[in-house]
Write a structure and sequence with these properties.
Layout (H helix, E strand, L loop, with lengths): L1 H8 L2 H6 L11 H8 L12 E3 L12 E3 L39 E9 L8 E6 L2 E6 L9 E4 L15 E3 L8 E3 L1 E2 L6 E3 L7 E7 L2 E5 L5 E5 L3 E4 L15 H6 L47
Antiparallel strand pairs: 1-2, 3-4, 3-6, 4-5, 7-14, 8-11, 8-14, 9-10, 11-12, 12-13
């Protein structure tokens, strides 16, 4: 009876008028999936920076937004190893090295070779006609150099210099190349990292076999464009970072707390002892069958 009397005195108006009661709105399935489904790194999406590209190509350094390893939509931390870093402006590389398909090659002049904080190699400002563009600088490229670009494949392979762009079919065997097209007419997708290069090994039919920096061999169409030479900044992977502060400037988040002594993560393996085994007696040798013969 006391419990019934308590519920009779209970008024719903007090709860409605209470300021602590917050009105809730319905959540759509799309918003719920965005919050609950956390994306995983390694899907080809970069969580380091967003480059704000204009509609047309320009050599003006582009503005960037550093993400620090977070998803740009939800703000959740996705890539744990990214964070901090100096904010650099982005130099837009023109990945298509085009030239005439007949006649003499196109002459281009290197205006300047500069460092780019958003990539490992250096970039070169190149002038051709009334156009300025950025390309990846080669190992020995310097201001004032003249480089050539052509899509013509002659009967005899050309003797290309460093920085020249020719189809694979126009280059000699053993030539070091970078900025290689996967398919003719596409941007140069392959061999961009500092100090890397591919090697032309052999030709058969209309295909050219190239050994990539991973030592894997692939056959490309002979009309695929490639730039001669090795990518600049060849000591990039040999140069030590030097200090924790420099590592933070590069945009790497510290990993303190991950290392544990002798747990097998970074040291020797500590495995459990195998379970006890009962030593069984040796098996008895098989008895040789006895053969009986009888003359009938």
């Amino acid at each position: 009876m006391a419990l019934v009397r308590l519920f009779q005195n209970f008024s719903l108006n007090r709860v409605v008028n209470d300021v602590r009661i917050v009105q809730t709105c319905s959540i759509s399935v799309e918003n719920l999936a965005k919050v609950m489904n956390k994306p995983k790194p390694g899907t080809g999406k970069a969580y380091r920076r967003i480059v704000h590209y204009p509609e047309q190509y320009t050599v003006v350094p582009l503005q960037v937004t550093n993400l620090a390893g977070r998803d740009p939509d939800t703000g959740r931390l996705i890539a744990k190893g990214i964070g901090g870093g100096i904010k650099h402006k982005f130099h837009w590389i023109k990945w298509v090295r085009d030239g005439p398909s007949e006649g003499p090659p196109q002459i281009e002049k290197v205006i300047d070779v500069i460092d780019d904080g958003c990539r490992t190699s250096k970039v070169a400002l190149v002038a051709v006609g009334n156009e300025l563009k950025y390309i990846l600088a080669t190992e020995n490229m310097k201001a004032g150099d003249l480089i050539k670009s052509s899509r013509f494949i002659p009967r005899i392979p050309v003797r290309a210099n460093e920085g020249d762009a020719y189809p694979l079919g126009a280059l000699q065997l053993g030539t070091q190349i970078h900025c290689l097209e996967k398919f003719p007419g596409q941007p140069c997708h392959l061999i961009h990292a500092a100090g890397t290069y591919g090697t032309i090994l052999r030709k058969f039919g209309d295909l050219v076999v190239v050994q990539l920096p991973s030592k894997q061999e692939f056959a490309f169409k002979q009309t695929c464009m490639a730039t001669v030479g090795r990518v600049s900044n060849i000591y990039h992977n040999k140069t030590p970072i030097g200090s924790a502060q420099k590592n933070r400037e590069l945009g790497n988040r510290p990993r303190s707390g991950l290392w544990q002594r002798k747990d097998g993560r970074h040291g020797r393996k500590i495995r459990k002892l195998p379970p006890m085994r009962v030593i069984s007696p040796p098996s008895k040798p098989d008895l040789e069958p006895i053969k009986f013969t009888a003359s009938v």
